[in-house]
Design goal:
Layout: E1 2-8, E2 11-16, E3 27-34, H1 38-46, E4 55-56, E5 61-68, E6 80-83, H2 93-96, E7 124-126, H3 129-132, E8 134-135, H4 142-145, H5 148-161, E9 170-173, H6 177-188, E10 194-197, H7 201-210, E11 214-216, H8 223-230, E12 236-241, H9 248-255, E13 256-264, E14 293-296, H10 303-314, E15 324-329, H11 334-343, E16 350-354
Parallel strand pairs: 9-10, 9-12, 10-11, 12-13, 13-14, 15-16
Antiparallel strand pairs: 1-2, 1-4, 3-5, 3-7, 3-16, 5-6, 6-8
Length: about 350
């Protein structure tokens, strides 16, 4: 089979590999819709998870089941499915403690394009199919559905971990697709005022549609000072970090009021210079005693998560297809879409590759 792979750090290309084999509880899936992610960019061009050779990329997919193992009960060949970006081993100790994304060690539930070939192949393997696939609802567009496996799941996690209450004031730092879903998640959880920090025109427009009340641009001055001024010096009740370099933690803590939560769903890659240490401002953190909590999390996976996100879309709570600014058709357009994600032109939010209607 053919796949788009990381050949080595800084280089991608098309390769031929053997079709994956199907275990008794697993599935082999053909892609139906695919979406490159900034994480793919970090993996290839920053070497964020270390060197990988001939590893098929990608972790955001809708698919058509091609084969199932003899113990799979709820899926059959021909089913159209949502494939979570994170596919945990659900019977492990970490999953039973409530942290399925961390099965097998830190970030261990992230298998696609990390510990095994990803979804950018003509076929790909899904472990524990009954637990790690969800049926794609009839009537859901592919552009909307392909946002569920990672963008919605991660962005909503940012809002969930931020403990947003009714009427809370929230800042979302970074309004790429994950941050935009963080804005939508904050609104759904009852936030009052929502500051969205970003400048890209397409993203600003969608941020307003998803519920942002204030747009903060670094071009207008220091973002922390702008938010403190807008809140009368009080700061915000919750911060969702969805982008930025190491210093974004400094900004987040400096704009957070005492008793707040800083919820990080940002992937800090290796492009941080010589240091692997993330900074925390001593005064902004209240000398370590201001009841400012920092919570982190990896995109939740699994069938129930995908089914619930699908309900959010099907019952009109949000429309993730608004983020699909660049739509390509055909498997061979995948490389072009990934390079677009790397280049990030001003009119881009998310590229999507459709393989069928």
């Amino acid at each position: 089979m053919k796949g788009l792979a990381m050949l080595k750090i800084g280089e991608i290309g098309w390769i031929e590999k053997e079709r994956p084999t199907c275990g008794s509880r697993d599935a082999i899936v053909k892609p139906l819709a695919l979406a490159p992610c900034t994480s793919d960019v970090h993996t290839v061009w920053e070497g964020a998870i270390g060197d990988r050779h001939n590893l098929i990329l990608g972790h955001e997919a809708l698919g058509i089941v091609d084969e199932v193992g003899n113990e799979v009960r709820d899926f059959k060949p021909g089913d159209r499915v949502i494939v979570p970006a994170i596919t945990p081993d659900w019977e492990t100790e970490a999953a039973q403690r409530g942290f399925p994304s961390q099965t097998g060690g830190p970030l261990g539930g992230w298998k696609f394009s990390n510990s095994k070939d990803g979804v950018f192949g003509e076929f790909f393997h899904v472990n524990l199919a009954d637990h790690n696939l969800a049926h794609l609802p009839d009537g859901m567009s592919l552009e909307a559905g392909v946002m569920l496996p990672d963008m919605l799941s991660t962005g909503f996690l940012g809002a969930e971990n931020a403990k947003i209450g009714i009427g809370s004031t929230v800042a979302v730092l970074g309004i790429g697709p994950v941050g935009l879903c963080g804005v939508a998640g904050a609104r759904l959880r009852g936030a009052g005022r929502i500051f969205a920090v970003g400048t890209r025109p397409a993203a600003v427009r969608v941020a307003k549609e998803y519920g942002a009340t204030d747009i903060i641009s670094y071009k207008d001055g220091n973002t922390v000072e702008q938010i403190l001024e807008a809140t009368g010096g009080a700061g915000v009740d919750a911060v969702i970090i969805a982008g930025g370099g190491p210093d974004i933690l400094v900004d987040a803590l400096n704009m957070a009021r005492p008793g707040s939560v800083v919820s990080n769903v940002n992937y800090f890659g290796s492009g941080m210079g010589e240091s692997d240490i993330l900074p925390i401002p001593r005064v902004g953190w209240g000398f370590g005693m201001a009841d400012k909590s920092i919570v982190t999390g990896l995109c939740p996976g699994g069938r129930v998560r995908m089914e619930r996100l699908a309900d959010m879309v099907m019952y009109g709570r949000m429309d993730p297809s608004r983020m699909a600014t660049h739509v390509f058709r055909g498997f061979d357009r995948l490389e072009e879409a990934l390079l677009l994600m790397k280049e990030k032109p001003r009119d881009l939010i998310k590229p999507v590759v459709l393989l069928a209607s």
